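Exercise 7. Given the encoded structure of a 409-residue chain, write a plausible sequence.
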């Protein structure tokens, strides 16, 4: 007997349409469907009389914008608001999708809408797009669907993503300034070594006298950079590429790097408090949604933003799965402060784990804010001193022979 044929997957397309509403007013927009007839039927259900429906050209894909986490957050908040107002899910998708400023996000929303309209559960429709909807998002949506409180869960998801993105944004902002200044310092130093110092070198050669040790060192450094700049640049690019390549493929390497970063003064404190805040906020959100603790910890592990904490949470999950309490599993990891462990213990005993974790998250998010502000204030004078010493040394080295000659004269 011949094996059964595999059912072909029906592909949906994006269509542009024009039509009129019940009052005869002209309307236009975009809808996703398998064919023109399906789009027309969908429009009629919405009270629109289709006049012209045509497939959107595929070459527009080249102009796609990147879908950011902020886009997903706004989508969650808008969808929750629509559903809380009593708008049917499919219609809510249509309204949110058409109103989005990002064409790529608009296309993604309409694709999900087509799946939901075809009978697919929202969580399963979202799971088809793992680049934009992580396991945590999908699991929370699935829990909301099962409990019949999807709009409430979507609001919680939006709040969770807003707070986590806020933490990430503050850390990036604190790191951006010193990184930009360091890059500028490297470029200025390279320009001085390659173009300016050789001019002084030709001047010094006419003196016929021995150069001071500092000047000779800078001149030799200039010659080295001029002769081997291509090798240095290639080495930097190769190092960055190798680092990123290993980072993406070796969890052990990421674990070691994250462990070292956690021990760096000031920076390590910010990363540590940030990981605890994200752990607490994520677990609080999932606990409030009614997700079982073992399943929740599996999703929380990937949301901590630090492999050291992620591995610790996965080991905690194994302990909890064998019947151990969460607070005891946390205590054995020697990562979480005693205050956090005690708050979790109180939450477990009182049955209000989500509330306690929410308070912990609020506390540590405020700690991250204060630490980032302190780090920014501390980095500015340190960077100015480093720049002053670096550029000042080059300038003094170039003027030392002139001062020496003037003293002889």
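Solution.
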């Amino acid at each position: 007997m011949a094996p059964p044929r595999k059912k072909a997957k029906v592909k949906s397309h994006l269509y542009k349409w024009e039509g009129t509403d019940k009052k005869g007013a002209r309307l236009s927009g975009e809808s996703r469907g398998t064919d023109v007839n399906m789009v027309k039927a969908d429009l009629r259900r919405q009270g629109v009389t289709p006049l012209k429906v045509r497939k959107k050209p595929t070459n527009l894909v080249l102009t796609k914008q990147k879908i950011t986490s902020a886009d997903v957050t706004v989508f969650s908040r808008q969808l929750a608001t629509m559903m809380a107002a009593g708008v049917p899910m499919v219609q809510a998708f249509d309204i949110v999708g058409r109103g989005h400023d990002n064409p790529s996000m608009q296309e993604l929303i309409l694709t999900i809408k087509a799946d939901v309209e075809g009978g697919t559960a929202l969580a399963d429709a979202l799971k088809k797009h793992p680049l934009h909807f992580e396991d945590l998002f999908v699991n929370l949506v699935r829990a909301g669907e099962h409990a019949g409180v999807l709009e409430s869960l979507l609001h919680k998801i939006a709040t969770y993503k807003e707070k986590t993105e806020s933490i990430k944004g503050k850390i990036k902002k604190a790191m951006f300034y010193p990184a930009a200044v360091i890059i500028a310092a490297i470029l200025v130093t390279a320009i001085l070594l390659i173009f300016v110092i050789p001019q002084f070198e030709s001047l010094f050669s006419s003196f016929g006298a021995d150069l001071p040790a500092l000047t000779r060192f800078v001149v030799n450094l200039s010659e080295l950079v001029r002769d081997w700049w291509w090798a240095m640049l290639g080495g930097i690019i190769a190092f960055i590429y190798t680092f990123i390549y290993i980072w993406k493929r070796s969890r052990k390497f990421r674990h070691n790097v994250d462990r070292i970063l956690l021990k760096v003064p000031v920076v390590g404190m910010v990363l540590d408090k940030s990981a605890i805040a994200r752990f607490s906020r994520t677990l609080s959100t999932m606990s409030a949604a009614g997700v079982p603790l073992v399943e929740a910890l599996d999703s929380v592990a990937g949301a901590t933003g630090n492999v050291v904490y992620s591995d610790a949470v996965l080991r905690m999950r194994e302990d909890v799965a064998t019947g151990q309490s969460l607070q005891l599993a946390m205590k054995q990891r020697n990562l979480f402060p005693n205050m956090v462990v005690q708050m979790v213990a109180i939450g477990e005993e009182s049955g209000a784990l989500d509330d306690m974790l929410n308070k912990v998250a609020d506390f540590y998010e405020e700690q991250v804010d204060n630490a980032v502000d302190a780090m920014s204030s501390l980095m500015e004078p340190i960077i100015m001193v480093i720049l002053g010493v670096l550029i000042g040394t080059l300038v003094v080295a170039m003027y030392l022979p002139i001062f020496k000659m003037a003293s002889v004269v």
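Remark. Confidence is low (pLDDT under 50) at residues 1-9, 59-63. Students should compare their own answers with the one above.
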